[in-house]
Amino acid sequence: MEDICVGGCYAQTAMPLAAGSEISIVLFINNDKLWADGMVISSHSGAGIGIEFTHMDRQYRNWLEEFVRCTDPVLAASTPASLDWIKLYQTVLKETDPQKRHAQIEEAERVIKQALRSAVKEADSDLRRSLSDALHYLKLIQAGQVIQVPVSESV
User: What confidence score (pLDDT) does residue 37 get?
Assistant: First the structure.
């Protein structure tokens, strides 16, 4: 991957597809897999293809927005931290020390509840569902009832 943004990416390939081709791709970002459907909008023989994302699950789009925000210094300085809950949630999932995990769960719950209030105000039902699911799984993790959390809903 040479370039990526929320709207698409440029993928290096020796045998590019023709412009107008539909494509399904998996992006590997920070050890996470993000699935997307797209359309080839530019094709350069021996170099690669420009892909416009045409469909991506809301959760994957949120993860991608967070990734782009964190890796672009201009966006990092200008974009509100409305997606911090994803980073905190992922930190909880990776933590193995029970004491650290407890503190991280409390912080993640606080941030997720703030994001949930915003999602309710904005009438964003997809985000509300994702946030509610995240809170539910955090409670299960804290109770010791979940060791591995489901990755996400299918695309």
Answer: 93
Q: Which of 26-35, 40-49, 50-59 has the lowest mean pLDDT?
A: 26-35
CA dihedral sign, ordered 73, 78, 83, 85:
positive
Structure confidence at residue 4 as a pLDDT band (50, 70, 90): confident
What beta strand segments (E) does the chain contain? 3-5, 8-12, 22-29, 32-44, 48-55
Q: How do the domains of the chain map onto residue ranges?
A: 3-57, 80-142
Q: How many CB atoms lie within 10 A of CB 109?
A: 19
Please tell me the distance from the alpha carbon of residue 32 to that of residue 94, in angstroms, as a whole number. 12
- What residues form DSSP beta bridges with 37? 24, 55
d(CA 48, CA 39): 13
Higher pLDDT, 126 or 113: 113
Structure tokens at 142: 């804290």
Mark 29-55 as b/e (b = at least 16 C-beta within 10 Å). Answer: beeeebebebbbeebeeeebbbbebee
